[in-house]
Amino acid sequence: MTLRTLLATPEWAAVRVLAGDPDRPLRTVRATLDLGQVPVADELVVLAGPVSPADWRIDALLRRSADAGGTGLLLPAVEPLTGTRLLADRLGIPLLVSETDPLELLVSARLHLVAPDLDRAQLVLATHRALDDRPHSPDQAVAVLRELLRAPVALLDNQGQPFAGELAEAGLVRAEEPVPQRIDLDDGVLLAHPALHPRPGLWVATALKGIAAARADVVPPALAVAASAVQRWLLANRLELERDARSRTALLTDLLRLDAEPGADLRRRIADAGWRLGGWHIGIRVGASSTVDTVARTHEVVRALGAEDTVIAEHGEGWTGWLTLDQEPTAARVRKLAARLRAAHKALGRTLVTHMGVGRPYPRAEGLATTIAEATDAARLAATRPEAGHFLHVDQLGMAQLLLEWTRTDTFEPAARALVAPLQPAPGDLVRTLAAYLDAESSLAETAAVLGVHRNTVAARIARVEQLLGVDLTRRDERLALHLACRTVTMGD
């Protein structure tokens, strides 16, 4: 053991190093009332009685300790003279001072010398007691561990960013490696333990600096205990989230199927969920990739939309919701709300790739399904429109909305597929090329940029399309028919 290791223990945390280097070996600790004491090698001398800061015998004791290869000198609640501190620095002998009872420090030091693993055992036991079997939120777990370690602690996500707590060195954790990590710092050490193993998920991390770095071998088991507590909370929280999500989805489904006034049971469930059926509703649809965990990411969507008058529920590959207003909104109010939702969608895009559609305002429960259907159609179109920021409000669609409804009929899609069927077996992905060409208003250069090919390649493919389909793409009617057909086939696929 070294003196630094002893100073890092909780019992010695209040001891101050006034001079000297604490990285000295420590083999014994002796309490004395005699300033004429003769120290031995690797011994820390603890003065147990009062002493005057100007007593010349302190300097003499420091010299004898240095000559004998001693570890240092602890003074009880006294600030020695500057000359004494300079002498300790010159001799390289640590000079310590503490307000704590010297005999308590003596007992603690001897216990740690006899049982070097005592600090580790006490820390693990204290962590277990503080983080018992009850679920503790990440913030609670971080706060408990921070108090026990007397060092900054944070829970990091799979990008190495703080999920709870604060840690300046968080970016140094290698988040892609789900194993305990130890990273040396200029003035200490950074320790991290995965909360989910073997899949990368969250890390419990702490930075031990200065004297605290001496506990680098002591702290990891406590981090493992805290990581287990976080994992228990994650599992319990996930079950609760999934239960709530199923309840919201089922309630939304019942509402959308409603073709009459809701019954008493449905009204009770709506009231329990805090949803409003009265007033005017504006539908919202947020679509996402099928790979997105909608249950886990719901809080991000709710936080982005961030309004008390907004309802959001997990629904299919994304989220469905609505805004509720007390009175019929004016056109200016609708535009303002749409702008707010566009800004919310843009903010959400920093962490999640989505497309959003917004419906028009409709009153009461019977209008809810209508505005949500409009929002869903708008979101479907928004998914194919990067130029609009993947956001569309139904009021922006006009005839496009009517055409979209038409292309969703049972008769149009088979006809559309039959129309472009000759292009399917041909090489060169002709359907996609034709769709991009028509979207680009017959511009070869823009189509080539979208597809990432040469414009001559696009020209050859378009000529092949005209040949296979027997059409003339300079004719507006044929272009319109093929444009709708391509859009229907690609959206259906």
Automatic annotation (TrEMBL):
Domain CdaR GGDEF-like span(s) in chain numbering: 263-381
Entry-linked Pfam families: GGDEF_2, HTH_30
Positions of the PucR C-terminal helix-turn-helix domain: 430-487
Entry's family note: Belongs to the CdaR family.
The protein's name in its UniProt record: PucR family transcriptional regulator
Naturally occurring in which organism (per UniProt): Amycolatopsis alkalitolerans
